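## tool: complex_structure
## caller: assistant
## args:
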Amino acid sequence: MIKRVPVVERIMSANDQIASENHKLLNDFRVFSMNFMASPGAGKTSLIELTVKELANNWELSVIDGDIATSIDADRASAAGAQAIQVNTGGECHLDAVMVRSAIQQIDLGLTDLLIVENVGNLICPASFELGTHINVLISSIPEGDDKPYKYPQMYQHIDALVINKIDLLPYVDFNLEYFLKGVEILNPGLLNFQISCRTKEGIKNWTRWVAENVTSFTGEELITHL
Amino acid sequence: MIKRVPVVERIMSANDQIASENHKLLNDFRVFSMNFMASPGAGKTSLIELTVKELANNWELSVIDGDIATSIDADRASAAGAQAIQVNTGGECHLDAVMVRSAIQQIDLGLTDLLIVENVGNLICPASFELGTHINVLISSIPEGDDKPYKYPQMYQHIDALVINKIDLLPYVDFNLEYFLKGVEILNPGLLNFQISCRTKEGIKNWTRWVAENVTSFTGEELITHL
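## result:
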C-alpha cells in the first residue's frame, strides 16, 4: 500500500524569491530598509529629503528612487545627503524585487545603515510586489481625500506604518480625519500613524525619532546624539 | 516572377479592437464620451458631480465608474442625477475596453447624450488602454506638485484636455504654475487647460461651457438654455 504523504509547501513567485534574497542580503549587512509607497505627489520625496537631512549626521543613508521617467527624485535625495540610485522602470507602474536587486548591487551596503526605497507613485500595483525591505510605509496626504482607505484597501492592508502628510492643509479642504482613521483601523487594526507636514515640519521629529529607533535596534548601534 | 506586394497594416491589439467597437457604438447613438483619468484624490468624482449637476437640465448623462473596490463614486454620480454604472476591476489598476463594453451594455444609449467614464485613480496604467471614448481628459491637482508632467509624461502626452483642480490651494502649497505649464507644453503643445476648484466652484462654468459645446456639436442639438 502506498502511503500518501501530504506535502504542504508555499510556492513562491519569482518575485517573492528574489525579494527573499534581497531581504537576506540586507539582513547580512545589517541595513534597515523601508519601502515608501504613495499616490503621485503625496510627498514621498519630500519626506525622504527631511528624513535624510535629520538622520545623516548619525547614520549612512541610501535611497533607491523608482520612477517611470526622469531622475528628479534621486537628485533631491542625493542633494540631501544620501547615496542615491535612480531606477527608471521604463513605463512599469511599480518596482519589483529584480529592479531593487539591481539597484542594491550599486550601493555600498557596508556603508549603509538605512535604505529607503521610493516606489513609483501609485496606490495600487506596488502593494502586490514585495521588494525584500523590512517594512512597508504608505505616505497618504490630506488633499487626496478621506475615502482613500475604503477605495484602495489592499494598499492600506499591506503596510506597517502610515504617514499622513500635508496635515497643514486640513483647514482648507474637506477631510474628515475620524472617518479616514476609522477606515484605516478596519483594514489594518492598530496601525501606527504619523500626522505630519513636510512643508511646515509639523510632526517630523516624531517620525524621524521612530525611524531612528528602528535603525538603532536593528543595527545594534546606539544613537550618537539625541534627535 | 513573384511580385511582392507590400502590405502595411496596423495590427490592433485585442483591447484596441474592442475600443474601436465601443467607439462605433457611441457614434451610432450619437453619445459624446470622455475618459477621465487622474491620480487618486485629484477630484475626478467631484468634477463629475459638478458637471452632471450643471448639465443634467439640458442633456441626459451617464457615468461609468471604475474602481478597484466600493461603489462610493457611482453612488455620488447617481445622486447628482446621472445613470451610473459601477465597474469593480477586481484589483486591476485601470479600465480596459472590455470592461467599458460590458458597462455600456447596461446603459440606455438611446437616452444618453454625454457619457463620462471615470477611470481608476492612477497616473500610469490608464494611459496605455484606449477605451473607445472620444476624448481623454486628465484631472491634475495643485497639491500633487508642479513636477508631475515631467514625471508622468506618457499620461500628459495621451490627453485631449487638462483640468487643473484645487487651484484654491495655490497660496498654501509650493507650486510653480509656470514650471508646470511649461512641462505640459513640451509634452502636448497647445493642450487646452482649465484651471478650476471643485470646492470653491472657480472656473467650473468655463469647463462645463466647453463640455456643453462639445456635446452640442456632436449630437447636433442646440442648447436648450444658455449655461
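## assistant note: Chain B touches chain A through 35 residues (CB under 8 Å). The first strand of chain B starts at residue 32 and ends at 38. Handing back to user.
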